[in-house]
Amino acid sequence: MGAYCNDGLSLSPIYSFASSQDLRLSKHVHDNVHGNIYIDPLCLKFIDTEQFQRLRELKQLGMAHLVYPGAVHSRFEHSLGVYWLAGEAVQKLKNYQGLELDIDQFDIQTVKLAGLLHDVGHGPFSHLFEREFLPRVLDGHWSHEQMSVKLVDDIVDKHYIEIDPEMIRKVKEMILASSEFARPIGSGEKHFLYDIVANGRNGIDVDKFDYIARDCRACGLGCNFQFQRLMESMRVLGDEICYRAKDYLTIHKLFATRADLYRTVYTHPKVKAIELMVVDALLKANDYLDISSFIQDPSKYWKLDDTIMKTIETTSNPELKESRDLIMRIRRRNLYQFCNEYAVPKDKLENFRDVTPQDIVCSQKNGGVILKEEDVSVSNVRIDLTRGRQNPLERIMKVRINSRYLMIALVTCCLHHIKI
């Protein structure tokens, strides 16, 4: 790509030989999405730990593989992909704006490490564990981002990894950047670095770039979103990562593809039915296995993964019979039956509350079979483009360089429907 100039602001590439030196010291793995991924020595120390290797036993899409047989990819693959894209993104910014932005090898290493470790604290069965199971057995809020931060410290302490404390601090802040636990960024920090892995400002980040491409590929779905275009054109203006005005369609495709994945894969009626059955199985097993206690201690948490389902299924303990029977029903495809779904009209969203089993039971008419609350499971599903109710391309703050670039300040899009 050529240079873009405006009022003395140079965007010409500044190439460094540091990356080629890194390659000679790195190991590589072949990824089915990104090709060869080169792993630097420091990140390899984190990968070669039991805490990180646990991600091999966490399916990226939870129970979706029982509907889409190819969806058996893991959080391990995804984490390597985000590591690679995070490194590529910050290196491209360094190549084009390195002197202006003062990007150094410390920054590159920090961003790569944040990409690698952003999901190390993820629970079993994708988001089901955090959003469906834990709220029913715990008081208070728990998030996988917070556990990722705890596990980062645990890995460093347990494996005596020599690393700058300042780098670890920034890695943890980058992991939390898009969560409700995001920490204030100091005035002296390079804010744009915190938007690469988990973008809390507008939702455009390499985490989405990877999982959208990877999930579409695994499920055999077409993906017309090309993240490479955004990676090439990204620039920093006003300490925020921005994209060319003509790339607005590519950005729209990013969020539209994500919404399509929610509709066709993540909230597929059969997938939701299986997830509800797994939640019920975990709830019935919790008193005996004390699953919820694992989340309090990082030294125990790394032992918790998707294999808990096989543990329940293969044990002969009578206290786990109800859980075992539910899992056997899943194996034999005797699933909860999908009854109906209701799309909430846009003008009703403001005052609409979540539907409960009690609402369904109370709405029954006399005659025929009478349902009880325990006979009904309700899944309230919110599908949006980013994090809210507005079109992400509605609000645009125009900051132009030679009429080639503008800052697209994305806000969240609308809730589409609620499934019952």
Characterization of this structure:
With 420 residues, this protein is mainly α. The protein is 43% helix and 7% strand. The chain contains 16 helices and 9 strands. It has helices at 18-25, 41-47, 50-53, 75-101, 105-117, 128-133, 144-158, 165-175, 206-219, 227-233, 248-266, 269-289, 298-301, 308-314, 321-331, 357-362; strands spanning 5-6, 9-10, 27-31, 35-39, 235-237, 240-244, 341-342, 405-406, 418-419. The chain has a 3-stranded antiparallel beta sheet. A hairpin with a 3-residue loop joins strand 3 (27-31) and strand 4 (35-39). Helix 5 (105-117) packs across helix 8 (165-175). The longest helix has 27 residues, at 75-101. The chain is globular. The model is unreliable at 1-20 and 394-420 (pLDDT under 50). InterPro entries: dGTPase-like, HD/PDEase_dom, HD_assoc_2, HD_domain. It comes from Quercus rubra. GO terms for molecular function: dGTPase activity. Residues 75-212 form the HD domain. This is HD domain-containing protein.
